[in-house]
Every structure is written in structure tokens, then in C-alpha cells.
Write a structure and sequence with these properties.
Elements (H helix, E strand, L loop, with lengths): L2 H15 L5 E8 L5 E8 L8 E3 L1 H8 L4 H15 L13 H4 L3 E7 L4 H4 L4 E4 L2 E12 L2 E6 L2 H7 L3 H15 L2 E5 H12 L23 E5 L14 H9 L3 E7 L2 E6 L6 H15 L11 E4 L4 E4 L10
Antiparallel strand pairs: 1-2, 2-3, 4-6, 5-6, 6-7, 8-9, 9-11, 10-11, 10-12, 12-13
Helix pairs in contact: 1-3
Length: about 325
């Protein structure tokens, strides 16, 4: 059974088992970097927030010998844990004032997203692009969001510079930047994957929470979701320079975070580029790749540029 047939079989069994008028249907969408993904979209009567559960990981489990019925039961149990009991007020989308305080932004690779960038407002940021979305809801299970496209712009009668101004303010409030040591990041990862783990005090060097030092650091947002956008937050790179007291490299480990490495004689941008390319090719999902090369922040000049380039590029 190939993936398409597997997805169809999952859809069929889910519809046989779901109650209360809920209905599952296959849904294919183009994600970041042009990656297409197919999953099951589950619609519940009276609720206009419909989650899509992607099936690639379940398909791998199926190929390893798990039964289809067991997999469907697992998907239904997951759906029960994330389903919404009430609708989002869609009327808010009809006017800009209804969403103005929920507009935020993220960074995507310009070259890998040229097709979708033709239909959405965006702002160049080095060789990346700032794109905008409405952060509809945030819960412990995840977040619901809506990409802002050109038709929204026309309906709202707003310009890209207005989106940028509001998104900067909202992103700092709703998705505040967090800067912490790699050691803390590893502890956080272990804590998330362990059933029992000693609680680690929160660390955010941007606000003086934690004074530890490390050879590598991580910059992301509070949700750890599209947190690489924090490099475009006003003054954040400058603040990090003040903390580290040196120029530093920005390694785009994914769209969700970047790794910060203070410059030293033992590191070269070309070597770091190769490391990032290798990690992207072997350890990062295609849709989560941000860039294949590192950037350098010059503390004295106050700008960010590609690490292997000698000409400066202005930072927002």
C-alpha cells in the first residue's frame, strides 16, 4: 500500500468510527519551501476550526508492521485531545480592526518560496522574506493561524508597511524573544521527552534570567514556533551583542530557532556553511529549512550580513 492508498484507507475507517456528525476528508496543502503534505481534515458540525492531522509519521509506523485499525484509533485519540469545542469568530477577519492585534510575522527562505510569495505580502530581509499571519489561538496543544494573502490586504485596505508595524509590536508581545544557552536548550528537550524530569528554572538572558555562559546559544520565541523570526525583532541582535561582547555567527538551524555562536579564530563562515548544509540535508524536515548558510552580526557596525560576504547589508 503506497502513501495515497494508506491515506484513503485511514480516511475511510475514521469516517466509520467518528460520531456526532464529525467528518474526515483528505486535504493536500503546500507548506513552507513548496513542500506538499497530505493529511485528514476533520470537520465538526457547529465548529469552524478544523484541524488537519498529517499522516507521514503514521505511514512509517504502518510500514513497520502496525495495524491500520490501531493507527486510526491513535489518530482519533489525538484528535479528541486537540479538537475545539467552540468556533472562532470568523467575522473578525472581515475587518482589519478585528485582527490587528493578532497580526504577527515569520521568516521564510525567499528562493524556496518564490511561488507563494507572488500571492502574499512580504518584506525582503537579507535573502529571506518576512511574511505575515494571524495568530488565531494558542493552547497547550498548539496554535491555530491564518496566513495573510493579497486578498486580505485588499479587503482590509491596508499596506504592507502597516502590517509590518503592527506585526512587530504584536510579535514582541505575543511571541517574545528568548535567548538561552545550548545547555539549557538540551535540558528543555530532555524535559519535554521524559515522563519524569527535574524542573529547570526558566532561562532568558535577554531579561537577565540566568547568568550562565556557553559556547553556543539559541534564539527563539516563547512558543518555539517560527522563532527564527526573532532575528528581525528590533534591537534583539544588538542586545545579544551586548551580552556576548563580541561579533557572532547566526546559524539558521530551522525556521523555529537560530543558533548563536560567538566569533573565534577557530571558526570560519565557510566551515559553518558546510555544517548547516549537512544538518539541513540530514536532520531537518524539508519544510522547516530556513537557509543553507550562516550570517554574521557585526557588533560595532550594528548590522547582519551573510557570513561569507564582505559587503554589508542593512538590518531591519
Amino acid at each position: 500500500m503506497d502513501y495515497r492508498a494508506f491515506a484513503g484507507a485511514v480516511e475511510k475507517q475514521m469516517n466509520q468510527k467518528m460520531a456526532g456528525g464529525a467528518k474526515a476528508g483528505l486535504y493536500t496543502t503546500t507548506k513552507n519551501n513548496g513542500k506538499e503534505r497530505t493529511g485528514v481534515l476533520i470537520e465538526t458540525p457547529g465548529v469552524n476550526i478544523s484541524p488537519t492531522i498529517y499522516l507521514e509519521e503514521y505511514f512509517q509506523v504502518y510500514k513497520q508492521g502496525e495495524t491500520l485499525e490501531t493507527i486510526v484509533d491513535e489518530i482519533l485519540a489525538f484528535y479528541e485531545s486537540i479538537k475545539q469545542e467552540k468556533s472562532w469568530d470568523y467575522e473578525k477577519v472581515m475587518s482589519y480592526e478585528g485582527v490587528r492585534d493578532r497580526i504577527v510575522f515569520k521568516l521564510v527562505n525567499t528562493a524556496k518560496n518564490r511561488k507563494i510569495l507572488k500571492s502574499i505580502p512580504h518584506i525582503p530581509f537579507l535573502d529571506l522574506s518576512v511574511v505575515f499571519y494571524v495568530l488565531i489561538e494558542v493552547t497547550q496543544e498548539g496554535s491555530a493561524a491564518m496566513m495573510v494573502n493579497e486578498s486580505h490586504m485588499e479587503q482590509w485596505r491596508v499596506r504592507t508597511d502597516t502590517l509590518w508595524s503592527d506585526a512587530v509590536r504584536n510579535s514582541r508581545n505575543l511571541l517574545p524573544a528568548e535567548f538561552f544557552t545550548m545547555n539549557y536548550a538540551l535540558k528543555e528537550m530532555v524535559r519535554e521527552n521524559a515522563e519524569y524530569c527535574t524542573e529547570t528554572p526558566p532561562e532568558n538572558l535577554l531579561i537577565g534570567s540566568g547568568r550562565s555562559r556557553d559556547g553556543m546559544y539559541v534564539l527563539s520565541n516563547k512558543l518555539r514556533n517560527y522563532g527564527a523570526a526573532c532575528i528581525a525583532y528590533p534591537h534583539i541582535l544588538e542586545m545579544i551583542g551586548g551580552i556576548l561582547r563580541s561579533d557572532y555567527y547566526v546559524l539558521p538551524s530551522s525556521v523555529h530557532e537560530v543558533v548563536i555562536v560567538p566569533c573565534s579564530e577557530g571558526l570560519s563562515a565557510a566551515e559553518l556553511d558546510e555544517m548547516v548544509k549537512n544538518i539541513n540535508a540530514t536532520q531537518v524536515a524539508e519544510e522547516e529549512v530556513l537557509s543553507d548558510h550562516v550570517y554574521l552580526y557585526d557588533v560595532k557596525a550594528g548590522y547582519l550580513r551573510r557570513g561569507t560576504e564582505f559587503t554589508s547589508e542593512g538590518n531591519k
